[in-house]
Amino acid sequence: MNDSAQRGNVVLVHGGFVDGSGWQGVYDALTADGYNVAVVQHPTVSLDDDVVVTHRVIDAMSGPVTLVGHSYGGVVISEAGTHDKVTALVYIAAFAPDKGESVNTLIADPPPGAPVPPILPPVAGFLFLDRDKFAESFAGDLPLTQAAFMADSQVPWGVDALAGAVSVPAWRSKPSWYLVAQDDHMIPPPAQRAMAERIGATVVEVSGSHSVYVSQVAATAGIIKQAAQA
């Protein structure tokens, strides 16, 4: 185990439509390098609840925490990251809202020509992605069998979670990093770059789909290590 073991803990927060198991590759890479890593399994029903669940994981850590969010997880870490133990924020192809903003406000005015995520109409307050278009939109650089499994194991995303607005954005008081996925068909790369610039993040760009945290493990783990060691 190398000296990075002394640099604290990493907490990984998943996005909408998926659960924390997608982080396994990143988890394996970080733990192999001596980091203490926890994966939050939040239900994505409401932002308030997801923040409570995330704080529960952070509370269980001893020492400083690097808090990482993918996609909607960026909203969660923006709200949860004001926790005293959090020393750095890492956004992986993620939403980075300011005060009063939510997923809904951030996606309300897409740029011309941007791909439209194939989100089906809500049923009983929950959203799913069109299974037949899941691979193309969410996981374009993963094997088709893996993308099909992700499509069939979707976690229903609560419309209340999309409406959850950030009260005090943690990036205003904590240093942040942002991994831009250049081939993302869920959050347009220009929108990712604009959010990263707005929050003053240290930016890394890689070729990858919205599932960049699955397909580009080395790059994802690398930017998390940068943040943890800064």
Automatic annotation (TrEMBL):
<protein>
    <submittedName>
        <fullName>Alpha/beta hydrolase</fullName>
    </submittedName>
</protein>
<keyword id="KW-0378">Hydrolase</keyword>
<dbReference type="InterPro" id="IPR029058">
    <property type="entry name" value="AB_hydrolase_fold"/>
</dbReference>
<feature type="domain" description="AB hydrolase-1">
    <location>
        <begin position="10"/>
        <end position="221"/>
    </location>
</feature>
<dbReference type="InterPro" id="IPR000073">
    <property type="entry name" value="AB_hydrolase_1"/>
</dbReference>
<dbReference type="Pfam" id="PF12697">
    <property type="entry name" value="Abhydrolase_6"/>
</dbReference>
<dbReference type="GO" id="GO:0016787">
    <property type="term" value="F:hydrolase activity"/>
</dbReference>
<dbReference type="InterPro" id="IPR052897">
    <property type="entry name" value="Sec-Metab_Biosynth_Hydrolase"/>
</dbReference>
